[in-house]
Amino acid sequence: MELAYSPMSKCILSPFPCFTHRPPLALFSRVSNSPVRYANAPRRLWKMCSASSSDTLVEGRKSLEVANKKEDEYEDLKSWMHENGLPPCKVVIKDRPSHNAKHLPIHYVTASQDLQAGDIAFSVPDSLVVTLERVLGNETIAELLTTNKLSELACLALYLMYEKKQGKKSLWYPYIRELDRQRGRGQLAVESPLLWSDAELDYLTGSPTKAEVLERAEGIKREYNELDTVWFMAGSLFQQYPYDIPTEAFPFEIFKQAFVAVQSCVVHLQKVSLARRFALVPLGPPLLSYCSNCKAMLGAVNGAVQLVVDRSYRAGDPIVVWCGPQPNSKLLINYGFVDEENSYDRLVVEAALNTEDPQYQDKRLAAQRNGKLSVQTFQVCVGKEREAVLEMLPYLRLGYVSDPSEMQTVLSSQGPICPMSPCMERAVLDQLSDYFKARLACYPTTLSEDEALLADADLDPKKRVATQLVKLEKKILNACLETTVNFINQLPDHSISPCPAPFAPTLK
After folding, report:
1. Measured on CA atoms in the order 58, 63, 66, 71, is the torsion positive or negative?
2. Sorted alphabetically, which PANTHER family does this protein's record hold (predicted)?
3. Which of 228, 229, 406, 435 could bond to 507 as cystine, CB 3.0-4.6 Å?
4. What are the DSSP E strand ranges found in 330-405?
């Protein structure tokens, strides 16, 4: 939408907020603000679990400092699955050392024989898949809770925490033990930033991802406060554990660890009921590696969840699956890794019309007619930074219109075309240029410094993935800045002074 703006305004930008100082927001809007308690429900006081308690889903750090010597006494995950209905498949489980010698090795799924695109690597029967339908025992209850109370991840995490309390009596003991081994670590052996210390989160300074982590952590806390509601409403859980009130049986830190572990391996199935759409699949992630340029996905087919590979594999090659069109920020938060070849990587730029502008309502209407909102989010995709800047410019120009007659011209036009004076165009471009410079200034390191850090083979794994992330974000912002400067240089007289704009849109 090419909208013209009057030369009679002044460009006023609010101070640019570095993302590390943004206040956290509630992530799960479905979660109510106060937990529901049931005073008349039977209660048993449980000793609060420590991080190394056997009552937790994710083992504590202390218990993971050395390998479990008794592990060989138990059957491995794949043997357990075969004994419980897994048909012959074309994969095996191997392991690679963790970056931290104190932690157990990472397990991963490899091809047991040569595979061709279209081959079925494995098919896990529904009896070995954990879904809300199984957890809550009622599809209606599952839909009710996940619509009004909790996320699917919280319900699944709670179920596995209860199952772990049963020890070897639980059908899921071998699978839960595998999740404990992985500890929510991705294939790079890095935990989600949700489990990082404050000092480790500082690796993300300047990145909007740090605020996202804090928002997600707040959301998990709010879900924790709703766990008693799930326990009371879920018939299957209540019948099995009538005295184990969740918030008494599991402290928040343990729940968060379990939540993150489940988050790292949950599969979003397509074309199934709502109560089955989120599933925990043994042999699935995190044993499978995620890859952004892969198209193979786990799918529900005839009472099973199967994987059809999208490429050729030699025996021993790790099997990879697609994790959807997720930016690197989500890959890091959800799975603990960053993909430098991720073609779905993107940043967000938010622009808002000035509500104090006397012509705000007319401008809002003009924006709506062209498919934009009064507060508009722009997605800046990697490799398409120029297109993103071109999409932002018409919206920004709208904020510079000050002459009522010009505004009427904009409203009456049939298309997104309106003349712009060189000084007004310069003001718009300067605003955008200053915005990108301000975002880049929030990072404590430069691109060259990031490259130097990544060249260090001994760099801490968490710092490595964080540095990879901020480096890729800076590349996107630099490309946007370069595009904007090029537009400035293409003006008839690029040295012309910008026109003032008292009601310029805000950017953040």
Report:
1. negative
2. RUBISCO METHYLTRANSFERASE FAMILY PROTEIN, UNCHARACTERIZED PUTATIVE METHYLTRANSFERASE
3. 435
4. 346-352, 375-381
302-317 CB burial, b ≥16 within 10 A, e <16: eebbbbbbbbebeeee
Nearest of 278, 258, 261, 262 to residue 270 by alpha carbon:
278
Q: How crowded is the C-beta side of 95, counted as CA atoms within 13 Å?
A: 13
Rounded to 10 degrees, the C-alpha dihedral 385/389/390/393 comes to: 180
For 142, the 3-state DSSP assignment is helix
| DSSP element (H, E) containing 307 | strand 304-308
Distance between CA 178 and CA 126 in Å, rounded? 19
Q: Are 491 and 426 within 8 A, CB to CB? A: yes
Residue-by-residue DSSP string for 230-286: HHHH-HHHHHH-TT--HHHHS-HHHHHHHHHHHHTTEEE-SSS-GGGSEEE-TTSTT
Do 385 and 476 form a contact (C-beta atoms < 8 A)?
Answer: yes
Residue among 115, 108, 92 nearest 311 (CA): 115
Tell me if 287 sits within 8 A of 106, measured CB to CB. Answer: no
Exposure letters 373-384 (e unless 16+ CB within 10 A, then b): ebebebebbbeb
Tokens of residue 482, six digits? 């370069």
Distance in angstroms (rounded) separating the CA atoms of residues 504 and 501 = 5
At 360, which helix (H) or strand (E)? helix 360-369
Distance in angstroms (rounded) separating the CA atoms of residues 487 and 499: 16
- Taking Cα atoms as reference points, which of 474, 503, 492 lies closest to residue 19? 474
- What whole-number distance in Å separates Cα of residue 396 and Cα of residue 504? 7
Number of neighbouring beta carbons within 10 Å of residue 234: 23
Q: What is the C-alpha to C-alpha distance for residues 241 and 254, in angstroms, rounded to an integer?
A: 18
The Cα 401–Cα 7 span in angstroms is: 8
CA-angle at 195, arms to 189 and 199, nearest 5°: 100
